[in-house]
Amino acid sequence: MSSSLLDSEAVYSAAPLTFLANSFLVSGVLKAALDLHLFDLLSTQALTLKELSEKLDMPRRAARSFLNACASAGLIIKKEDRYQNTMLAETYLVKGKPYYFGGYLAFEINRLFPPTHHLAETLKTGGLKKQNAAESIFDVYAEDPELGLEFFQQFHVLSGLTAPFLLEKIDLSDRKTVLDLGGGSGSLSIELAKSFPYLKFTLFDLPGICKIADHFIQEASLDSRISLYPGDFFKDDLPSGFDLILLSAVVNLWNPEQNEILVKKCWDALVPGGKIIMVGSMLKDNEYEPLELSFVSLISAIDTQGAIYTWKEQEEFLTKAGFQNLVRFPITAPIRNGVIVGVKLKD
């Protein structure tokens, strides 16, 4: 008598495997919708299949499948014979809206897809990390101001969305001077400066990135409160005397040894009683959850010198430098899902 999968006591469906095999289509649909300006079209009005087929210059049959795929992905809503944006798409994917970062998402899809096409070989060779281990993606943008500004226009909004979560969780009323280390476009400093008019900020980053940050700081009319300190935090001494250091989305770019050096420099730059706020992507201590960050960590292994570290690993960077009274709490900002606060205790 022949046996089959259905004869076994535990029947397993192969559906999850086919979903995984086809999941790349989800990012493809999002990228196509951005390229076709679908969310811009649906921002002011709900449109029919016929209207969208004409506006997208797409055969009706293809348009129907594409729009239904967008609806299935939660990007748009289908009501009777009309389509409209979801609140998610309306908030983040319509050009000109305050929190638009569709360009950043399209950039990420373009950047991350090629290494995954031949992932087995890429992993064996070390990928981009092995070919150019000295550079991070931010080194590249620092050397090309025009390309860097284009990238940071998108990343600036994304980074700024972290600030409301910090304001909700952390009291900064007893702080006076802030070092935003690796502060990028200055988005976090800018948003915090708006809420705490008595705080003075110093943004430390590569010279080319400081020029980009100056653009956004001037635009926000905060140049009197946010100063720039160009440098390389591995090669140069950090300015000191601060009672707060922000380290946002930085440690994921570097290997553990580099992070230990960096965090020790943060310790030295703080006055006794000073605090460090580490914001970033945190894997659970089991190392494979949440799903999204587990896959981002895989890309980090071939595209940077760093990784998406666990909560525990990031706390160890702090404790090895001498920080105490660590507090961790989750947030739901885009990409960044965790914050750890440490204190340099007074003698």
Write up this protein:
By secondary structure, the protein is α/β, with parallel strands linked by helices. It has 2 domains: 88 residues, Arc Repressor Mutant, subunit A; 221 residues, Rossmann fold (3-Layer(aba) Sandwich). Helix content is 48%, strand content 16%. The protein is built from 17 helices and 10 strands. It has a 7-stranded mixed β-sheet with strand order 6-5-4-7-8-10-9, sandwiched between helices. Strands 1-3-2 form a 3-stranded antiparallel β-sheet. β7, α15 and β8 form a beta-alpha-beta unit. α11 crosses α13, α11 crosses α14 and α15 packs across α17. The longest helix is centred in the N-terminal third of the chain and has 16 residues. It is globular, with a radius of gyration of 23 Å. The relative contact order is 0.09. About 2% of the residues have low confidence.
